Amino acid sequence: MLGDLGDSGDSGAAGGAPQPGRVEPGDIEGVRTFADVSREHTEDPVSYDVYPPPGGEHHPVWQNCGVYSRELVPEHVVHSLEHGAVWISYREDLPGGQAEELERLYEQGDYLIVSPAHPRQQEDIVAVAWGKRLVVEDLGDDQSLIDFLNTYVQGPQTPEPGAPCTGGTDETMQAA
């Protein structure tokens, strides 16, 4: 179970919250890097090549960090990635309480967004940070998600470190 992964040694802050920089970025197996990601603002809808997108054009308003029960507007979440957030997106048909395990990773104040997936997401669980993407193959046996969080929440790839992850929007696709 994911909670066990977070407690398997040097997990970081109280409550098992990830700490940035614990693992070298190149040491996380399966992380795909996207270079030269656009930081342009747009009011228009964006058609991303992959879902969830690891960056690119985005709306001027960012998504508030937290746990959501509905699909999010990708253009808002991408702006949060620019601020140093990580987005964990999961298919709603995950078996065995895995969605709840993912939701428990968030603690108040974390630069983390957890939500159901966009319909174009084909993988069960994906984590993205600015310019980084990880497909989680086995939630129960895989340390890579915890390492990804420890490395990329407010990590070295963040274009605007310390920019807010609150004071934006809580809008979901159903409310858009």
Q: Would you give an account of this structure?
A:
Residues 1-45, 155-176 are annotated as: Disordered. Residues 1-11 have a biased composition (Low complexity). Pfam families: DUF3105. InterPro entries: DUF3105. This is DUF3105 domain-containing protein. Residues 1-23 have low confidence and may be disordered. It is globular, with a radius of gyration of 15 Å. The protein is an alpha/beta fold. The protein is built from four helices and six strands. Strands 1-6-5-3-4-2 form a six-stranded mixed beta sheet, with helices on both faces. Helix content is 16%, strand content 14%. It has one domain.
Characteristics of this structure?
176 residues, alpha/beta, 6-stranded mixed beta sheet, disordered N terminus, DUF3105 domain-containing protein, DUF3105
In short:
The protein is of the alpha/beta class. The protein has helices spanning 2-6, 74-82, 98-103, 144-152; strands spanning 31-33, 66-67, 86-90, 112-116, 125-129, 132-136. It has one domain (2-175).
Give the helices and strands, then pairings.
Elements: H1 2-6, E1 31-33, E2 66-67, H2 74-82, E3 86-90, H3 98-103, E4 112-116, E5 125-129, E6 132-136, H4 144-152
Parallel strand pairs: 2-4, 3-4
Antiparallel strand pairs: 1-6, 3-5, 5-6
InterPro entries: DUF3105
Region (Disordered): 1-45, 155-176
Biased composition (Low complexity): 1-11
